[in-house]
Design goal:
By secondary structure, this protein is of the alpha/beta class. The chain has 12 helices and 22 strands.
Protein backbone atom coordinates (compact mmCIF):
# COMPACT_ATOMS: atom_id res chain seq x y z
CA UNK A 1 0.00 0.00 0.00
CA UNK A 2 1.25 3.47 -0.87
CA UNK A 3 0.36 6.44 1.33
CA UNK A 4 0.86 10.11 0.60
CA UNK A 5 0.42 12.63 3.39
CA UNK A 6 -1.04 15.74 1.75
CA UNK A 7 -2.13 17.38 5.01
CA UNK A 8 -2.65 16.83 8.73
CA UNK A 9 0.83 15.34 9.13
CA UNK A 10 2.59 16.80 12.21
CA UNK A 11 -0.12 19.47 12.32
CA UNK A 12 -3.81 19.90 13.11
CA UNK A 13 -5.81 20.95 10.06
CA UNK A 14 -6.14 20.32 6.28
CA UNK A 15 -6.32 16.53 6.78
CA UNK A 16 -5.71 14.72 3.48
CA UNK A 17 -4.32 11.25 2.76
CA UNK A 18 -3.94 9.67 -0.67
CA UNK A 19 -4.02 5.85 -0.68
CA UNK A 20 -2.48 3.98 -3.64
CA UNK A 21 -2.72 7.20 -5.72
CA UNK A 22 -6.42 6.39 -6.23
CA UNK A 23 -8.37 6.80 -3.02
CA UNK A 24 -8.40 10.11 -1.14
CA UNK A 25 -9.29 10.15 2.55
CA UNK A 26 -10.47 13.56 3.84
CA UNK A 27 -9.68 16.89 2.20
CA UNK A 28 -9.79 19.71 4.74
CA UNK A 29 -8.62 23.23 5.41
CA UNK A 30 -6.34 24.55 8.12
CA UNK A 31 -8.03 27.53 9.74
CA UNK A 32 -5.57 30.43 9.77
CA UNK A 33 -5.37 33.84 8.21
CA UNK A 34 -5.22 33.11 5.30
CA UNK A 35 -6.40 29.46 5.50
CA UNK A 36 -4.04 26.72 4.37
CA UNK A 37 -4.97 23.90 2.01
CA UNK A 38 -3.52 20.41 1.42
CA UNK A 39 -0.10 20.55 -0.30
CA UNK A 40 -1.55 19.15 -3.51
CA UNK A 41 -4.98 18.78 -5.12
CA UNK A 42 -5.01 15.21 -6.47
CA UNK A 43 -7.32 13.64 -9.06
CA UNK A 44 -8.60 10.59 -7.13
CA UNK A 45 -10.92 7.86 -8.41
CA UNK A 46 -12.95 8.04 -5.18
CA UNK A 47 -13.03 9.96 -1.91
CA UNK A 48 -13.85 8.78 1.62
CA UNK A 49 -14.57 11.28 4.41
CA UNK A 50 -14.20 10.56 8.14
CA UNK A 51 -16.39 13.36 9.56
CA UNK A 52 -17.96 16.76 8.97
CA UNK A 53 -15.47 19.24 10.45
CA UNK A 54 -13.82 21.94 8.32
CA UNK A 55 -10.33 20.51 8.84
CA UNK A 56 -11.51 17.26 7.19
CA UNK A 57 -14.00 18.44 4.53
CA UNK A 58 -13.34 22.14 3.95
CA UNK A 59 -11.58 21.74 0.56
CA UNK A 60 -13.70 18.86 -0.74
CA UNK A 61 -15.80 20.83 -3.28
CA UNK A 62 -12.59 22.04 -4.96
CA UNK A 63 -11.95 18.43 -6.13
CA UNK A 64 -14.88 18.82 -8.51
CA UNK A 65 -13.74 21.94 -10.35
CA UNK A 66 -12.13 19.98 -13.23
CA UNK A 67 -13.53 17.10 -15.28
CA UNK A 68 -13.12 14.41 -12.57
CA UNK A 69 -16.30 13.33 -10.76
CA UNK A 70 -15.05 10.94 -8.07
CA UNK A 71 -17.81 9.47 -5.88
CA UNK A 72 -17.62 10.82 -2.31
CA UNK A 73 -18.38 8.26 0.40
CA UNK A 74 -19.48 9.32 3.89
CA UNK A 75 -22.21 8.87 6.48
CA UNK A 76 -25.45 10.84 5.98
CA UNK A 77 -24.70 13.36 8.80
CA UNK A 78 -21.18 13.92 7.44
CA UNK A 79 -22.64 14.68 4.01
CA UNK A 80 -25.09 17.18 5.48
CA UNK A 81 -22.47 18.83 7.67
CA UNK A 82 -20.06 19.16 4.74
CA UNK A 83 -22.77 20.85 2.67
CA UNK A 84 -23.68 23.19 5.55
CA UNK A 85 -20.03 24.16 6.04
CA UNK A 86 -19.44 24.63 2.32
CA UNK A 87 -22.50 26.88 1.96
CA UNK A 88 -21.31 28.89 4.95
CA UNK A 89 -17.80 29.27 3.48
CA UNK A 90 -19.33 30.35 0.18
CA UNK A 91 -21.53 32.91 1.92
CA UNK A 92 -18.71 34.37 4.01
CA UNK A 93 -15.79 34.14 1.57
CA UNK A 94 -17.22 33.40 -1.91
CA UNK A 95 -15.07 34.80 -4.73
CA UNK A 96 -11.95 35.16 -2.56
CA UNK A 97 -8.84 33.04 -1.95
CA UNK A 98 -10.45 31.73 1.23
CA UNK A 99 -13.16 29.92 -0.75
CA UNK A 100 -11.57 27.81 -3.53
CA UNK A 101 -14.92 26.70 -5.02
CA UNK A 102 -18.25 28.04 -6.28
CA UNK A 103 -21.93 27.12 -6.28
CA UNK A 104 -21.24 24.86 -9.31
CA UNK A 105 -18.91 22.56 -7.35
CA UNK A 106 -21.42 22.37 -4.50
CA UNK A 107 -24.11 21.21 -6.90
CA UNK A 108 -21.73 18.58 -8.28
CA UNK A 109 -21.00 17.41 -4.75
CA UNK A 110 -24.67 16.51 -4.25
CA UNK A 111 -24.48 14.43 -7.46
CA UNK A 112 -21.43 12.36 -6.47
CA UNK A 113 -22.41 11.79 -2.82
CA UNK A 114 -22.85 8.16 -1.66
CA UNK A 115 -23.85 7.62 1.97
CA UNK A 116 -23.18 4.58 4.17
CA UNK A 117 -23.81 3.51 7.75
CA UNK A 118 -21.46 1.94 10.28
CA UNK A 119 -20.31 -1.67 10.48
CA UNK A 120 -19.23 -4.62 8.37
CA UNK A 121 -22.67 -5.15 6.85
CA UNK A 122 -22.37 -1.68 5.30
CA UNK A 123 -18.92 -2.17 3.71
CA UNK A 124 -18.58 -0.69 0.25
CA UNK A 125 -16.13 -0.57 -2.62
CA UNK A 126 -14.23 2.64 -3.45
CA UNK A 127 -11.52 2.89 -6.14
CA UNK A 128 -10.88 -0.85 -5.85
CA UNK A 129 -10.66 -0.84 -2.04
CA UNK A 130 -13.09 -2.37 0.44
CA UNK A 131 -14.03 0.32 2.95
CA UNK A 132 -15.90 0.09 6.26
CA UNK A 133 -16.99 2.84 8.68
CA UNK A 134 -17.11 2.41 12.47
CA UNK A 135 -18.52 4.90 14.99
CA UNK A 136 -15.63 7.09 16.17
CA UNK A 137 -17.56 8.83 18.99
CA UNK A 138 -16.32 12.32 18.02
CA UNK A 139 -19.39 14.06 16.53
CA UNK A 140 -22.57 12.63 14.97
CA UNK A 141 -21.64 10.66 11.84
CA UNK A 142 -17.91 10.57 12.62
CA UNK A 143 -16.15 7.40 11.49
CA UNK A 144 -13.02 5.34 11.84
CA UNK A 145 -12.25 4.30 8.26
CA UNK A 146 -10.99 0.76 7.56
CA UNK A 147 -9.47 0.46 4.08
CA UNK A 148 -8.52 -2.93 2.58
CA UNK A 149 -6.66 -2.98 -0.73
CA UNK A 150 -6.52 -6.80 -0.81
CA UNK A 151 -3.06 -6.94 0.76
CA UNK A 152 -3.09 -4.40 3.59
CA UNK A 153 -5.84 -3.34 5.97
CA UNK A 154 -5.34 0.28 7.01
CA UNK A 155 -7.29 1.73 9.92
CA UNK A 156 -7.50 5.53 9.69
CA UNK A 157 -8.90 6.56 13.06
CA UNK A 158 -10.03 10.07 12.10
CA UNK A 159 -10.85 12.20 15.14
CA UNK A 160 -12.28 10.07 17.93
CA UNK A 161 -13.36 10.00 21.55
CA UNK A 162 -13.27 6.98 23.82
CA UNK A 163 -15.64 8.42 26.45
CA UNK A 164 -19.38 8.86 26.07
CA UNK A 165 -20.71 12.34 25.48
CA UNK A 166 -24.42 13.05 25.86
CA UNK A 167 -24.74 13.46 22.09
CA UNK A 168 -22.68 10.50 20.86
CA UNK A 169 -21.40 7.30 22.47
CA UNK A 170 -17.64 6.79 22.63
CA UNK A 171 -15.88 4.47 20.18
CA UNK A 172 -15.87 0.77 21.02
CA UNK A 173 -14.94 -0.70 17.62
CA UNK A 174 -11.37 -2.03 17.36
CA UNK A 175 -11.33 -3.66 13.91
CA UNK A 176 -8.35 -5.86 12.96
CA UNK A 177 -5.79 -3.91 10.96
CA UNK A 178 -2.25 -4.27 9.60
CA UNK A 179 -1.53 -0.58 10.02
CA UNK A 180 -3.12 2.26 12.03
CA UNK A 181 -2.99 5.99 11.31
CA UNK A 182 -3.95 7.54 14.64
CA UNK A 183 -4.90 11.11 15.53
CA UNK A 184 -3.08 12.64 18.51
CA UNK A 185 -4.72 16.03 19.14
CA UNK A 186 -4.61 15.68 22.95
CA UNK A 187 -1.65 13.31 23.31
CA UNK A 188 -0.29 15.42 26.19
CA UNK A 189 -3.57 16.36 27.89
CA UNK A 190 -5.72 14.61 30.51
CA UNK A 191 -9.32 15.80 30.40
CA UNK A 192 -11.17 16.38 33.64
CA UNK A 193 -13.83 13.60 33.79
CA UNK A 194 -16.82 14.69 31.71
CA UNK A 195 -19.37 14.17 34.50
CA UNK A 196 -17.38 16.53 36.74
CA UNK A 197 -17.00 19.22 34.03
CA UNK A 198 -20.71 19.01 33.41
CA UNK A 199 -21.57 19.31 37.09
CA UNK A 200 -19.31 22.36 37.56
CA UNK A 201 -20.81 23.96 34.45
CA UNK A 202 -24.42 23.32 35.52
CA UNK A 203 -23.82 24.62 39.06
CA UNK A 204 -22.07 27.73 37.82
CA UNK A 205 -24.76 28.60 35.28
CA UNK A 206 -27.55 27.91 37.76
CA UNK A 207 -25.92 30.16 40.38
CA UNK A 208 -25.68 33.05 37.91
CA UNK A 209 -29.31 32.66 36.88
CA UNK A 210 -30.39 32.64 40.56
CA UNK A 211 -28.46 35.84 41.09
CA UNK A 212 -30.41 37.43 38.26
CA UNK A 213 -27.71 37.21 35.60
CA UNK A 214 -27.56 35.94 32.03
CA UNK A 215 -25.02 33.38 30.80
CA UNK A 216 -23.64 33.54 27.27
CA UNK A 217 -22.37 30.12 26.20
CA UNK A 218 -20.27 30.45 23.03
CA UNK A 219 -20.25 27.05 21.31
CA UNK A 220 -19.12 25.45 18.05
CA UNK A 221 -22.10 24.85 15.73
CA UNK A 222 -21.35 21.19 15.12
CA UNK A 223 -21.66 18.87 18.10
CA UNK A 224 -20.88 21.32 20.92
CA UNK A 225 -24.09 23.35 20.58
CA UNK A 226 -26.18 20.17 20.68
CA UNK A 227 -24.14 18.68 23.54
CA UNK A 228 -24.80 21.83 25.59
CA UNK A 229 -28.49 21.72 24.71
CA UNK A 230 -28.60 18.15 26.08
CA UNK A 231 -26.76 19.26 29.24
CA UNK A 232 -29.13 22.21 29.80
CA UNK A 233 -32.14 19.90 29.39
CA UNK A 234 -30.69 17.29 31.76
CA UNK A 235 -30.05 19.94 34.45
CA UNK A 236 -33.24 21.86 33.76
CA UNK A 237 -31.37 25.06 32.86
CA UNK A 238 -33.56 27.43 30.82
CA UNK A 239 -31.78 28.06 27.53
CA UNK A 240 -31.93 29.71 24.15
CA UNK A 241 -29.99 28.49 21.15
CA UNK A 242 -28.79 30.81 18.40
CA UNK A 243 -26.63 30.81 15.27
CA UNK A 244 -25.53 28.11 12.84
CA UNK A 245 -25.91 25.49 15.59
CA UNK A 246 -29.70 25.73 15.22
CA UNK A 247 -29.51 24.56 11.58
CA UNK A 248 -27.21 21.70 12.53
CA UNK A 249 -29.65 20.76 15.32
CA UNK A 250 -32.57 20.62 12.88
CA UNK A 251 -30.55 18.39 10.56
CA UNK A 252 -29.42 15.98 13.30
CA UNK A 253 -33.00 15.50 14.42
CA UNK A 254 -33.44 13.50 11.20
CA UNK A 255 -30.63 11.05 12.07
CA UNK A 256 -31.42 9.68 15.54
CA UNK A 257 -29.53 6.44 14.83
CA UNK A 258 -26.28 8.41 14.69
CA UNK A 259 -26.87 9.78 18.20
CA UNK A 260 -26.35 8.12 21.56
CA UNK A 261 -29.98 8.69 22.60
CA UNK A 262 -32.36 10.07 19.97
CA UNK A 263 -35.16 10.52 22.50
CA UNK A 264 -32.97 12.54 24.89
CA UNK A 265 -31.95 14.70 21.95
CA UNK A 266 -35.60 15.36 21.07
CA UNK A 267 -36.25 16.36 24.68
CA UNK A 268 -33.28 18.73 24.54
CA UNK A 269 -34.72 20.34 21.40
CA UNK A 270 -38.13 20.85 23.05
CA UNK A 271 -36.42 22.25 26.13
CA UNK A 272 -34.46 24.95 24.24
CA UNK A 273 -35.96 28.05 22.69
CA UNK A 274 -34.67 28.89 19.22
CA UNK A 275 -33.59 32.46 18.53
CA UNK A 276 -34.49 33.68 15.05
CA UNK A 277 -32.99 37.12 15.60
CA UNK A 278 -36.09 38.85 14.23
CA UNK A 279 -37.63 42.03 15.69
CA UNK A 280 -34.87 42.79 18.17
CA UNK A 281 -35.31 39.41 19.85
CA UNK A 282 -31.63 39.25 20.86
CA UNK A 283 -31.78 42.53 22.75
CA UNK A 284 -34.97 41.38 24.50
CA UNK A 285 -33.66 38.06 25.77
CA UNK A 286 -30.35 39.22 27.24
CA UNK A 287 -31.93 40.02 30.61
CA UNK A 288 -34.17 36.98 30.90
CA UNK A 289 -32.01 34.92 33.27
CA UNK A 290 -31.29 32.14 30.83
CA UNK A 291 -28.30 30.50 29.21
CA UNK A 292 -27.83 31.55 25.58
CA UNK A 293 -25.94 28.93 23.58
CA UNK A 294 -24.58 30.63 20.48
CA UNK A 295 -21.96 30.55 17.74
CA UNK A 296 -19.18 31.27 17.27
CA UNK A 297 -17.34 29.17 19.81
CA UNK A 298 -14.28 31.46 19.75
CA UNK A 299 -16.19 34.76 19.54
CA UNK A 300 -14.88 35.32 16.02
CA UNK A 301 -18.30 35.96 14.45
CA UNK A 302 -21.92 34.88 14.67
CA UNK A 303 -24.64 36.14 17.02
CA UNK A 304 -22.27 35.85 20.02
CA UNK A 305 -20.95 39.20 18.80
CA UNK A 306 -24.28 40.90 19.42
CA UNK A 307 -24.73 39.39 22.89
CA UNK A 308 -21.33 40.17 24.39
CA UNK A 309 -21.65 43.99 24.17
CA UNK A 310 -25.10 43.75 25.80
CA UNK A 311 -24.08 41.70 28.84
CA UNK A 312 -20.42 42.65 29.32
CA UNK A 313 -20.77 45.55 31.79
CA UNK A 314 -22.63 43.68 34.53
CA UNK A 315 -20.47 41.47 36.79
CA UNK A 316 -23.51 39.35 37.66
CA UNK A 317 -23.50 38.06 34.07
CA UNK A 318 -21.22 35.30 32.86
CA UNK A 319 -19.53 34.07 29.71
CA UNK A 320 -18.65 30.37 29.70
CA UNK A 321 -16.22 29.31 26.97
CA UNK A 322 -16.84 25.67 26.07
CA UNK A 323 -14.05 24.72 23.68
CA UNK A 324 -10.42 25.16 22.79
CA UNK A 325 -9.60 28.80 21.94
CA UNK A 326 -7.13 29.16 19.08
CA UNK A 327 -4.43 31.79 19.50
CA UNK A 328 -5.38 35.13 17.95
CA UNK A 329 -9.14 34.68 18.41
CA UNK A 330 -11.22 37.07 20.55
CA UNK A 331 -12.12 34.09 22.77
CA UNK A 332 -8.48 33.45 23.59
CA UNK A 333 -7.90 37.18 24.10
CA UNK A 334 -10.82 37.33 26.54
CA UNK A 335 -9.46 34.44 28.63
CA UNK A 336 -5.98 35.94 28.73
CA UNK A 337 -6.66 39.66 29.12
CA UNK A 338 -10.28 40.11 30.23
CA UNK A 339 -11.01 42.15 27.11
CA UNK A 340 -12.16 41.09 23.66
CA UNK A 341 -12.07 42.73 20.27
CA UNK A 342 -15.66 42.73 19.03
CA UNK A 343 -16.38 44.29 15.64
CA UNK A 344 -13.03 46.04 15.63
CA UNK A 345 -13.47 47.53 19.10
CA UNK A 346 -11.58 46.40 22.21
CA UNK A 347 -14.19 45.87 24.93
CA UNK A 348 -13.30 45.36 28.60
CA UNK A 349 -15.53 42.64 30.04
CA UNK A 350 -16.79 43.01 33.63
CA UNK A 351 -18.97 39.91 33.35
CA UNK A 352 -17.40 36.75 34.81
CA UNK A 353 -15.50 34.59 32.33
CA UNK A 354 -15.01 30.84 32.76
CA UNK A 355 -13.74 28.00 30.63
CA UNK A 356 -14.88 24.38 30.47
CA UNK A 357 -13.24 21.49 28.65
CA UNK A 358 -16.04 19.71 26.75
CA UNK A 359 -13.58 18.16 24.31
CA UNK A 360 -14.80 15.66 21.70
CA UNK A 361 -11.33 14.08 21.37
CA UNK A 362 -9.73 11.28 23.33
CA UNK A 363 -7.17 12.55 25.82
CA UNK A 364 -3.82 10.89 26.51
CA UNK A 365 -5.38 8.09 28.55
CA UNK A 366 -8.05 7.55 25.88
CA UNK A 367 -5.48 7.40 23.08
CA UNK A 368 -3.35 4.88 24.99
CA UNK A 369 -6.44 2.84 25.85
CA UNK A 370 -7.43 2.75 22.17
CA UNK A 371 -3.92 1.82 21.04
CA UNK A 372 -3.75 -0.99 23.60
CA UNK A 373 -5.76 -3.01 21.02
CA UNK A 374 -3.00 -2.41 18.44
CA UNK A 375 0.07 -3.50 20.42
CA UNK A 376 1.46 -5.55 17.50
CA UNK A 377 0.38 -3.16 14.73
CA UNK A 378 2.63 -0.51 13.16
CA UNK A 379 1.34 2.98 14.00
CA UNK A 380 1.56 6.26 12.11
CA UNK A 381 0.77 9.26 14.32
CA UNK A 382 -0.85 12.32 12.72
CA UNK A 383 -3.28 15.18 13.49
CA UNK A 384 -1.42 16.74 16.44
CA UNK A 385 1.00 19.49 17.45
CA UNK A 386 3.51 17.00 18.89
CA UNK A 387 3.16 13.91 16.70
CA UNK A 388 6.88 13.09 16.79
CA UNK A 389 7.10 13.30 20.59
CA UNK A 390 4.05 11.04 20.97
CA UNK A 391 5.45 8.53 18.45
CA UNK A 392 8.70 8.54 20.43
CA UNK A 393 6.83 7.85 23.68
CA UNK A 394 4.96 4.99 22.01
CA UNK A 395 8.26 3.50 20.82
CA UNK A 396 9.47 3.60 24.42
CA UNK A 397 6.35 1.64 25.35
CA UNK A 398 7.29 -1.03 22.80
CA UNK A 399 5.16 0.06 19.85
CA UNK A 400 6.38 0.41 16.29
CA UNK A 401 5.42 4.06 15.77
CA UNK A 402 6.46 7.03 13.67
CA UNK A 403 5.09 10.43 12.66
CA UNK A 404 5.22 10.90 8.88
CA UNK A 405 6.21 14.35 7.59
CA UNK A 406 3.91 16.50 5.52
CA UNK A 407 4.13 15.74 1.78
CA UNK A 408 5.98 12.42 2.00
CA UNK A 409 5.10 9.21 0.24
CA UNK A 410 5.34 5.93 2.19
CA UNK A 411 5.36 2.35 0.94
CA UNK A 412 3.88 0.15 3.69
ZN1 LIG B 1 -13.02 16.81 14.16
Amino acid sequence: MNLRFLGGAREVGRSALLVNERLLVDFGTLTANPPQFPVETPDPEAVVVSHGHLDHVGMLPALLSGTGRPPVHWTPPTYELAMTLAKDTLKLHGGTYNCPFTETELRRLTQVSETHGYGGSESFSAAGHEVTFFNAGHIPGSAHVLIDDGETRLLYTGDFHTDDQRLVAGTTARPDADLVICESTYADVEHEPRARVEKRFAESVTTTLWEGGTVIVPAFAIGRTQELMCICAAHDIPCYVDGMGTRVTEMLRRYPTFLRDGEAFKRAISHARVVTGRDGQRKRIVDQQAAIITTSGMLSGGPAMSYIPEIRANPTNKITMTGYQVEGTPGRQLLETGSAEIDGQIMPISAQVEQYDFSAHADRTGLLEFLESYRETPLLINHGDRCEAFAEELREKGYEARAPELGISLEV
